[in-house]
Structure formats: structure tokens, C-alpha cells
Amino acid sequence: MGQLTSLMQIMQGAARKAGRALNRDFGEIEHLQVSRKGPADFVTAADRRSEEVIFKELSEKRPGYGFLMEERGEVAGTDKTHRWIVDPLDGTLNFMHGQPHFAVSIALERMGEIVAGVVYNPAVDEMFHAEKGTGAWLNDRRLRVAARKELADAVIATGTPFYGKKGHARFLKELHQVMGATAGIRRYGSASLDLSWVAAGRFDGFWERDLKAWDIAAGLVIVREAGGFIAEIDGGEDVLSTGNIVAGNEDMLARLIEKLDAAR
Ligand code: 2AM
Ligand code: CA
Ligand code: CA
Ligand code: CA
């Protein structure tokens, strides 16, 4: 990999700084303040601190850009063409349970298109990153999606709906279709890392419904730049707005969609 562009330096700098704050809180999770946004939808002081760090850092480096952030929501900028889409802690439940599988996710949207993304897991110091047109990377290693073509050889990631989230019955139908045809299913609990792991070839595919733009915006460009494909599960146009996402290489994507269609 050559020199990082100034945009990548800014995005990775913000992600690392937030990651250091998360690592400090991860070391003291027993003292962490926790509240709920839904029956099983938790938010902690670590989510807010991480978001604060990212907001401050990106506002300083690119004054005027707007934000869409999980905890503070939409923050309008004076520059209407650029917006950061941020999940300050993706995998809060893992974090709260001492599981080192969580991430900071930052994407840049330019005129409605995602042009850059970073997904950083500070517990293992893995920085997944991509800018449109220049490939996807894990730290300084170039990424390529897995080449497996058959579901029978594949490890597929998903996200199960939880207490208070809709879609349990539909998910079970989809799971029934997919799990009977694959080598293995995984549910690790961080959508941004699920997509990054597809880009890295650790998963052959991934599907989940009802995600938010901040869960998937950065992962989307990372998967595409690794040669992977993204689709909206029901054939809708805009995966960022519906949050119904399926990912994989071209063949795996087609096979997964076939199974998900059969679940209807
Ligand atoms: P979060 O940690 O940023 O809230 C997909 O499973 C997404 O749902 C996760 O990336 C996670 O993002 C969010 N989520 C919220 N509550 C959850 C729960 N109880 N179990 C799993 N995921 C949850
Ligand atoms: Ca959350
Ligand atoms: Ca999330
Ligand atoms: Ca989050």
C-alpha cells in the first residue's frame, strides 16, 4: 500500500482515537454506566464517549461536513455535499460482556454516495479501510473476498433479531433455508465487522434485516472494494435506507438470495 490519502489519515485517526477510549472503558466495564433504548437495546457511557471523540475530531479536520451518528442522530452541516455516517461502537452487547469483537465504523458520503469507509476493532487493532476505486485493506494488507462458489463450502454470517426487535418468524424461515445448505452459520453481533470479514474472506457471505445506515455504510465500500457484491434482500434499490442487506462474491450472493427468496 502506498501513502494513505489525507482523507484516510483523518478517518483512521478519528477511529484510532475513539478506539483508545473504547479500550480504556473495555478494561473497566464493571464500572460502565448502562441504559436502554429498547428492551434489549443497550447504550453505555463508552458509546457516547467514543461518539464525542469522533465528532470532535472530524468537525475539527473537516469543518462544515454534516453527520449521521447513532447516538446524536442527524447533525446538519454547512457543506451539503458531505456527510459522515458514524457508529461509535458497533457491538455494544459484546463490549458489555467482555467480548473483544466490536468496532468503530466511519463512512464518508459525498453527494449521496459512500466514497470511503473505515471499520476499526481496537481490541485486536484491526483497521479495515477502503476508498472508492483504490481497493480494500486490513491494516496494510490488500483484501479480496473469498472465492468459494457453493453454499455447501461456505461459512455465512447473519444477525438474529433479539428481544424487542421485529422479524423473528421471518428470520427463522430464512435461517432454515440457509443453514440446511451451508457448512456453517455464525452470529457475532457486529454488522460492520461482519461486512469487513466478508471483505477479508473470513465469511463467504452475510445477510441481515433492519440494519441502520451507520451499521453498514463503511462496510459497504469495504466489501465492494474487495471485489464483493452487496444487494438489498428484497430487490429494493437502496440498501442504506431499508437496511436489508446481503453480501458475498457474485456467485455466493446469487445463491444466498435464492435461499432467502425461498423463505418467503
Ligand atoms: P450496536 O451494537 O451498534 O447497537 C445488528 O445485529 C446490529 O444491531 C448490531 O450491529 C448492533 O449494533 C445492534 N444491536 C442493538 N441491540 C442488539 C442486541 N441486543 N443484540 C444484537 N445486536 C444488537
Ligand atoms: Ca446501539
Ligand atoms: Ca451498530
Ligand atoms: Ca452502536
UniProtKB/TrEMBL annotation:
Catalyzed reactions: a myo-inositol phosphate + H2O = myo-inositol + phosphate
Keyword Magnesium: yes
EC number(s) reported in the record: 3.1.3.25
UniProt enzyme class: hydrolase
Gene Ontology molecular function: hydrolase activity
Cofactor(s) annotated in UniProt: Mg(2+)
Database matches in Pfam families: Inositol_P
InterPro entries in alphabetical order: IMPase, Inositol_monoP_metal-BS, Inositol_monophosphatase-like, Inositol_monophosphatase_CS, Inositol_monophosphatase_SuhB
Keyword field: Hydrolase, Magnesium, Metal-binding
UniProt record similarity statement: Belongs to the inositol monophosphatase superfamily.
Protein name per Swiss-Prot or TrEMBL: Inositol-1-monophosphatase
Top-level taxonomy: Bacteria, Pseudomonadati, Pseudomonadota, Alphaproteobacteria, Maricaulales
